Amino acid sequence: MTSPRRTFAIISHPDAGKTTLTEKLLYFGGAIHLAGEVKARGANRRARSDWMKIEQQRGISVTSSVMTFESGGVTFNLLDTPGHEDFSEDTYRTLTAVDSAIMVIDAARGIEAQTRKLFEVCRLRSVPIITFVNKVDREGRPTFELLDEIADMLALDVCPMTWPVGMGGTFEGILNLDTNRIARPEGDSRTFQGKVEDAPTLPAEIAEEIELAQAGYAAFDAEAYRNGDLTPVYFGSALKDFGPADLIAALSDYAPPPRPQPAEPAPVAPEEKEVTGFVFKVQANMDPQHRDRIAFMRLCSGTFKRGMKLTPTGHGKPIAVHSPILFFAQNREVADEAYPGDIIGIPNHGTLRVGDTLSEKADVRFTGLPNFAPEILRRVALKDPTKTKQLRKALDDMAEEGVTQVFYPEIGSNWIIGVVGQLQLDVLLSRLDAEYKVAAGLEPAPFDTARWVSAEDPAELKNFTDLNRAAMAKDRDGNPVFLAKSAWEVGYVQDRYPRVKFAATRER
Ligand code: G4P
Fold this sequence. Notes:
508 residues, Rossmann fold, Alpha-Beta Plaits, 3 domains, 33 strands, binds guanosine-5',3'-tetraphosphate, translation release factor activity, codon specific, T_Tr_GTP-bd_dom, GTP-binding, nucleotide-binding, translation release factor activity, codon nonspecific
């Protein structure tokens, strides 16, 4: 018997406390004993220069991309999502590999821009969300206001599962509304150290609040939560150890086990015998001496065994996976077996790409891994024309990793790269230089945005591309892309070619 799996991610706006919570979940889940390790990484990551250094050294960010821990007979796979908003594309892809998410909100700030964006991605895929309102050890907004904001802004039913008894200076603990037990702060640090009390006497205004809340909000309904219609809300302070244990229990009790995954010709259920999975992330050059890469595969069905041969759908020969990597918090371990919901790191030399399906028989293809229309386009200017080949290789590699997108125009040789955030451009240039020894600059491109084009009738598409040749390009996989000068132009051509589909995301 294998233990149940809970594969999840934490989504939040920077600074809400994701790193602190991650560390505490691992700690309470028994995976790490040294507080502070994950934290240092989070703080470094926010600083651009430090982040670049880390990127160059890699190692660290890889072992922490997936953190596995076991608690109460359940195996948890926590997938890290990059904190910086410029890396949202990578984050979005990671969210395709989870079955549920924890949304962390700062009690003083409520729902912020990045929380909302990430939430929308979860909603697109019906990923159920547990909400954690963090930092109640500080002054925060009134509890009702926070709950109503979540409900209104995200159009979700909310169900408070715990209730903060005061916040900031008046913080007296977290009441579990189900058991009527309160977790109390202790000592000078005001942390939770295990002190709980049954049926506490509450300040009158808190008792009243709770009564109102229980009458006013939806009762907890596991089904509604799993459908993504309701979010259970927990209050706490990751820093002071209030909440992490509640969240582990909630994931264990309510979060869905691995779900069937959308695929062609048919969705794949985890019970199916054949081993299948998809690559949601590729990380290259972890060791600068070797051009090795790790492809992160989410296992969707079957029991994976080390040495097994898997075939990437659509391209390539079967590959034998001799040294798969499982991720146990601080160290990489070589896996012998893995089960649906688990993440396996597969070392390879560039054969595996984001979006690839791997399977024993190679007759399925997972769908739904999005590419996003870039918001910034730049022309790549090569300083040394003899390096064209290296440049093409570098751009292809980075497109594969999902660092940037690359477009090869139909006319001319001015390759164009597209990103969703400015920071990706810096990463691109620094890596071109450091890893590929290609000196290049970026120039403004005469385009502002891009759309993948398709049409049911191939003649329609041909007609469109023929008439718009100067604005047509191909992406890394040879798909036709229309480069537009503005969002307005997209609307304009859309009206003129109603039978051509202009997509801002492309599923691969
Ligand atoms: P992030 O990964 O979401 O960006 O957030 P991170 O955990 O790094 O937390 C951001 C800041 O908020 C940190 O403070 C952290 O200590 C603090 N924090 C996290 N959880 C809580 C909490 O429950 N209560 C309080 N009061 N603070 C919390 P910092 O000043 O940026 O870092 P540091 O100097 O404290 O290490």
